[in-house]
Amino acid sequence: MNHCRWNLLPPVPDKHLTTISDFPPLIVQLLYNRGLTEPSQLEIFITSDKRLSGNPFLLSDMHQAVARIYRALLCGENIAIYGDFDVDGIVGTALLAQGLSTLGGKVTPYIPHRLTEGYGLKTAALENLYREGISLVITVDCGITALPEVKKARRMGLDIIITDHHTPLPEVPPAIAVINPKLPNSNYPFSELAGVGVALKLLQALFQGMGKEELLDELIDLVALGTIGDMMPLVGENRYLVKQGLRLINTTPRLGVREMVTQAGLNIGSLDAGSISWVLAPRLNAAGRLEHAMSSYKLLMTNSPQEAHALAIWLEGKNTERQKLTAKALAKAREQILAKGISPLLLASDKDCPVGIVGLVAGRLSEEFYRPAIVIKTGEQVSTGSCRSIPEFNIILALNQCSSLFTQFGGHSQAAGFTLPTKNLPRFQQTLSQLAATQLAGVDLRPHLDIDAEVALPDLSGGTLQTIQQLAPFGQGNPAPIFLSRRVRVIDCHTMGNNGEHLRMKLKQGSTMWDGVGFRLGNYQAEISSPLDIVYNLEIDRWGGEERLRLNILDFAPAR
Asked: I need a surface site. Which of 29, 141, 356, 448 has the fewest CB within 10 A?
């Protein structure tokens, strides 16, 4: 049996192929699968140029925000940038701090401590900033649900501009300006910007008014880091921003990024969206998960080679520590879930789980069992939880239905977090479990794989990958193309990695031999037979200074 649900997408109709003869048939098929059928759509998706960039003044309250910041710059006011402690918030804070400093602004970055302060705007932090002489606070990647905090800030005479991309509540905080493409009255053509993307639009509006828009080019690397790191869909404007950002990272990376790339064993010039999501973003996140995210901020902002080197080494160590802690906490959580029996909603709790990794553990559980997962760090008085979900279950809508139980919550449809009094945990668990059981009743809870095309391995070549790369960057919303090959002979298969977690295979069809690797498929080694039907991506294996094509096996089943 397949471990995933295979859905082979229909071929492009012949009449459609004849109208688009300028593109290779494979590209037309891949774009057709992504809902792009008009020649103009195909062209703009592949070029992903400035035409995808929206007018920043279409975002609500942009005029008010720009006017207030101009006033602050002219009067020499002290401005604080209040960011979140994840990669999106860190790079967004760096972007606004660097951009406003370029305009002569007096800027103070502020990122709360995950362990001692928690997510979002905090009144105590705002009071401290006000006492230090700050008169304007600009948020990045947070603030859209901070109603009481913004009201208190106003009463003390502190002006707030909110830039955020999270889902708003019915009532929006009474800030000087609230810039969020997800506001119900928004006229902005693209709603899926990352937090750093929204911050960029604010800078773009400021720079346009001063005739300095070209200065944005130096900051676009940060937008790529945050957009990919926050798993935003790489479609629309995000494609343009990420493509430009990757180009900058690969040609003239900032000192801190160059050092981080070196420590991670990657090469400048061949970095792609996967390099950010699997290697760079987890390192930038590691500081805030275990200590303070300001270390990652400093790494991105430093002009000192010595400081960049020292911080990158420190971050590499923190990332290794984070990996060990995650593996340990994941093992405990899996044990809990398997002991209770696998239900539609996975719930694990532990008083010792570091609060900085509960989201990672929830993500791994959701991925392994294909169910919404919630991992909670329990405290005597207060507990903190992180949720990861599947497309069939909107976790933020579910949390909304128990909003009265929380002291704080927020997030997206597939990732969210909350804080609540520990005494409310039993009611929360009962409500969420019932919701999941009702909504997921009768749903086939296996991952869904949309297969772009069925191909024979002998028909693949290096040219195929070059053709596919025209659709990069790949990620959320624009996944790497997935292929199906039937009746492939297995020449060799063995496990690799920690505890045999992965599979390495030698596969043959016709006269062609391919290497294949199946990440996290090690548990299924006993199911390998020959021949197999395999579902996979094409990728480049960079090892020992050499590059070669291989198959990234996503699933397999005995040949039919």
From this structure: 448
Handedness of CA 56, 61, 65, 67 (dihedral sign): positive
Look at the domain 56-218 and name its fold: inorganic pyrophosphatase (n-terminal core) (3.90.1640)
Contact by Cβ (8 Å): 73, 209: no
Peptide linkage before 184 cis (omega within 30 of 0): no
Helix (H) or strand (E) run with residue 359 in it: helix 358-369
Nearest residue to 206 via CA among 89, 92, 101, 51? 101
Q: Which pLDDT value is given to residue 504? A: 93
Residue 17: what pLDDT?
66
Integer distance in angstroms from the first to the last C-alpha of the chain?
11
CATH number of 342-439: 3.10.310.30
5-45+448-558 carries CATH number 3.40.50.1000: no
Q: Is a pLDDT exceeding 70 seen at residue 1?
A: no
Query: What digits encode the pLDDT tens for the residues 168-179?
Result: 988 999 999 999
| C-beta of residue 125 within 8 angstroms of C-beta of residue 67 | no
List the chain domain ranges: 5-45+448-558, 56-218, 342-439
Q: How far apart are the C-alpha atoms of 489 and 8, rounded to whole Å?
A: 21
Whether the CB-CB separation of 287 and 295 falls below 8 Å is answered with yes
pLDDT given for residue 540 in this prediction: 81
Residue among 492, 501, 498, 493 at smallest CA distance from 519: 501
pLDDT digits (tens, 9 = 90+) for 350-377: 999 888 899 999 999 999 899 999 999 9
- pLDDT on residue 203: 97
In whole angstroms, give the CA distance from residue 171 to residue 163. 16
pLDDT in tens, 216-236: 999 999 999 999 999 899 999
For residue 3, what is the DSSP state? S
Q: What gap in Å lies between CA 13 and CA 393, rounded to an integer?
A: 33
